[in-house]
Amino acid sequence: MTGDQIAILAILALAMAAFLSGRLRHDMVAMGALIACVAAGLVPAEEAFAGFGHPAVITVACVLVLSRGLQTSGAVDVLARTVLPDDAGRTLSLAALTGLGAALSGFMNNVGAMALLMPVALQLARRLDMTPGRMLMPLAFGTILGGMTTLIGTPPNLIVSGFRASAGGGGFSMFDFAPVGFVVALAGLAFIVTVGWRLVPITRAAAGEAFEVGSYLTEVRVGEKGKADGMSLYEIEAELDKAEAQVVGLVRGGLRVSAPRGNRRVQGGDVLVLEADVEGIAEALSKLDLKLEEQAKARDEEREKKERVREEEARRDEDEQRRREIDEAAALGDVALGPVSEPEPAPRESKTKEAQAKPGETGEGEAREARRDTEAEEVVLRELVVRPESQLVGRSARDLALRSRFGINLLGVSRNGRRSTTRLRTLQLQSGDLLLMQGPADVLAEFASETGCVPLAERELRIPDKRKALLAAGILGLSILVTVVGLLPAAVSFAAGVLASMVLRTVPLRSVYTAIDWPVVVLLAALIPVAGAMEATGTAELIATFLVGTLAQGHPVAALAMVLVVTMFLSDVMNNAATAAVMCPIAIGIAATLGVDPDAFLMSVAIGASCAFLTPIGHQNNTLILGPGGFGFGDYWRLGLPLELVVAAVAVPMLLLVWPL
């Protein structure tokens, strides 16, 4: 054993100990290992940060951004409401939920898929009278299983593909993982749905679970030739019943009808007054192709403003043309000079509004509008409580000129279960009212501070945007298609998808970089040169020779099973991306020692790294359900251990069948 081999083994042993202790973040440990390798002369200093330009790292970052587009546009919410059954029993509901989670995880970040479907799982648990944990753990494991089916499903797959390319075999394609991954995922899901969920311990969810805020009173507009146009209120209420929303009023031609008759048919342009919670509002908009009235009104005002600007520009062009014609005619002596019409003065209305505004309000509104135009801020939903001493008490949205002064919208008001017959924009606010506000996050925070409101604990509130949802799904689908047909490498294809998402605003510009899980990116970029040092010093081959000769006794099938089991164990106690980066050189070395094709061994690393079911620290999805499910550290193995046995029993024969040695 050489000095370099001793050094790299010592560094890896210390890094593994740090990974297992959990006292330092994974990216810090990886960066420490990289710096130690540079200091020991194992990695050239000029190549220390080459991992940040590795295609696998770029692809991981881009997939995370594209996943955020699916999340913020509401595309997955619409899909979940479409696919999941409303009145099915436990087995069918579990199958639909975990199947949807697995399918989404194949094409978006599986942590994002888990976060999106968690509220749905909690709702299903309440409806089916199940503890939250018995719905959350199957969903978490299902999303982990789904990630192993495609190249972009999980970071370990990208790392494995990168190592294959480095070894001279070229990277794996998008669906090379599917033949084995799909069968393994299907077997795992079948076990979870039929038997596994019963093994989840019955626990009580932790305190501080999602809070209940009651129903909002909000207004939605019926679109011209939309789904609701021409429907009776009876038919609309039947559609809204599943969303736990109800129509409590109708506005037509500026006149409000309280408690309208059920046989009345609505028309395009009508405004329906709904009572529902936030999730119900989102579902109602999606089901019936409705628009929030305040949003629709804001768009109408914006269109009118643009039309006035166009008319003004056209009038100026016409005056300029007349001026030129008169000047030309005067130069030729054809006509006498006459007065040229001056531009008409600005409408008095704008002056009146400016005069009526409080000191500083006009400049303040213009400043905010300019800032929104230049920064393209992310529009979010927030819930604010009106305090007794708030400036909002006794004033309405119209009095406050929320759109012109702040650039925000009041979408709904929740008032202790009491209804009002007043239009939303003219409703006088009271102490204790809960307001559903829409606007840029920093502007809403400033508004809450200025007006004396208290923001509620932050939670995900999404109103689906059909146009953005279709664009986000289309961009991701096109990126995948370009990769599959081989027009562009995966990293370039998905980077182009991110650029398209930024241009088309399916991902808010401010969220592009916050969508990236930077600790994972740093972890991958730091460990790639370390893994290269293992191979360059011959350490990977040394470990492979020891494992093959001592444990596998020279049998390729036994060696393949051993790589799978060791990778699964490491993935349970350390980051799955780090596990893949450590095991890939060893797998390639074992294949070289045995004189067999390395593809089956690399695929076993990919599957093993994706199967972290024994602990809450093995995968982020396991960590996500720790609190909401009321789990302890030792609750995961009861379902996780049998599931890992199922995975191993199915994966080894499938690997030998699809990737023969």
Structure overview:
By secondary structure, this protein is of the alpha+beta class. It has 26 helices and nine strands. It has helices spanning 3-21, 26-39, 55-72, 75-83, 90-105, 110-127, 132-146, 155-166, 178-194, 233-241, 278-288, 293-332, 348-356, 361-375, 397-400, 402-406, 441-451, 466-484, 490-503, 518-536, 539-551, 556-573, 576-594, 599-610, 620-624, 637-658, and strands at 216-222, 246-252, 255-258, 271-276, 290-292, 379-386, 409-414, 434-440, 453-455. Helix 3 runs antiparallel to helix 18 and helix 6 (110-127) runs antiparallel to helix 7. The longest helix has 40 residues, at 293-332. The two termini are 29 Å apart.
Question: Helix count, per DSSP?
Answer: 26
SSE-based structural type: alpha+beta
Q: Alpha-carbon distance between the termini? A: 29 Å
- Per CATH, the class of the domain at 366-455 reads Alpha Beta
Taking the sheet with the most strands, its summary is: 9 strands, antiparallel
Rg is 30 Å
Number of strands: 9
- Strand fraction band? 5-15%
Name the CATH architecture of the domain at 366-455. Answer: 2-Layer Sandwich
The CATH topology name of the domain at 366-455 reads Alpha-Beta Plaits
Helical content band: 55-70%
Going by CATH, the homologous superfamily of the domain at 366-455 would be: Regulator of K+ conductance, C-terminal domain
**Mean pLDDT value:** 78
What low-confidence regions span 5 or more consecutive residues with pLDDT below 50? 206-213, 335-344, 346-376
Shape: globular
